[in-house]
Glucose-6-phosphate 1-dehydrogenase (Coprobacter tertius), 495 residues
Amino acid sequence: KEAENQMLVIFGASGDLTRRKLIPALFELYVRRLLPEKFIILGAARSLMSNEEFRRKQSDYLSASSNISLNSKELGSFLELIYYVAFDTDNCKEYVKLKEMIVSLQKEKDIPDNIIFYLATPPAMYEVIPPFLKAVKLNVSLHGGTRKIIVEKPFGTDLKSAKRLNRKLELIFNEKEIYRIDHYLGKETVQNILVLRFSNGIFEPLWNRNYIDYVEISSSETLGIENRGKYYETAGALRDMIQNHLMQLMAFIAMEPPASFDPESIRDEIAKVFRSLRAFSTHDCHNSVIRGQYTDGEVEGETVVGYRKEKEVAADSNTETYVAMRYMIDNWRWSGIPFFIFTGKRLKEKRTEITIHFKSTPQQFFKGQCAGSSCNQLIIRVQPDESISMKFGLKIPGAGFEVKQVSMDFYYDSLKKDKLPDAYERLLLDAMLGDSTLYSRSDALEASWRFIDPIEKEWMKHPTRNLLYYKAGSNGPRQNLIGPEIFDSGNKTKC
Ligand code: BG6
């Protein structure tokens, strides 16, 4: 399927996301000849700049990026697709100027009236820009064209704000035209969870409470909060990583097979998983969730400051940079099986992986000879070194029956030597093609907030209760405990 000729309008074009993710992804798509034949990128932001200046900036950023293989001829022709309009997004009248620019570019480049609006702005603008687009009738095509709007995360800060944003957007665009982006769904290894589960008959019989002991989803980062103190203070790890990225990973692991492999059937199953999550009681909020915050330390040989000393962070901030959670999914497949999520910043290593821990044999002849409680784990490494490993026990040659846990490993680079496409490449292309499978639907998004809200509320009531500290560069709070055992250590809070 080829994407129809269209225009992409990026709001927040002078920002970090445009420079670091969107333009490089569009360039890669261009190099791989996946962009529509007639295509224009119109950057919109407040800073005064000419087209040439904007192009030069993008070219400098692209040239400085080590991930991109540049061919100067291709770069030159790609830059010709880029235009810029300086305007004040807060001012309704300025949208007339935007509309004129869009219409004149469509005419000049003979591009039909198909437009994607990308909100790469601070979240406060998500409720401002769409009504202004409506005011100048840019939200609908009067010429039989299409409209889509891509909204970056965070989509709301709680259930109430997410609902309000959904309702506001739905007054201006149809649900089918709204693309809520979660870049984790654009990762090859994440999509592959669906293929692994639904193209192989051997996993399905085992993929349930009868054979699985527990599931672990962990995402550790060495990065701190970079220059995003202001945003992070209002988010914390629970909103920044769990409500979206890690819950999406969990949904792919936990969902039922869809009725067919079309976007709505898949999104139905994702929403069902979120609706089946057991709601947290006050007791769970304190005993099944552990939060932490990093202090001064050393990460990858570099001395780094603690969270409270980061720019734009309060010196007495209680924002969590680490969360460990234990929760249950109340449905037939997963009844009684705990799921664990771990995430944190400024940890020892960058690694995102999902481990399915299978139950041990009914009679344990070789007890204690494998690393975990059983010899069998399926490990899906999302990043880095994207891979899938199956662990099992084998006999060490020689006398007796000494067991060793061995691993059958598949590495993605054995399938495709080139680097895996960046998540934004896949997601932008899908939006151009009108495929929303890998974008969040409003009901699923609201269900995920419904699950997270009680925890945030409890933390607001008790800002310092059970807030643990960990040294930057360590494994997190309760040193060296990086698995479920973290919940069995330390003092329990009585509620
Ligand atoms: C972003 C978060 O959505 O995801 C960041 O805001 C986080 O805080 C990032 O670092 C992680 O993404 P990735 O692709 O590097 O795992």
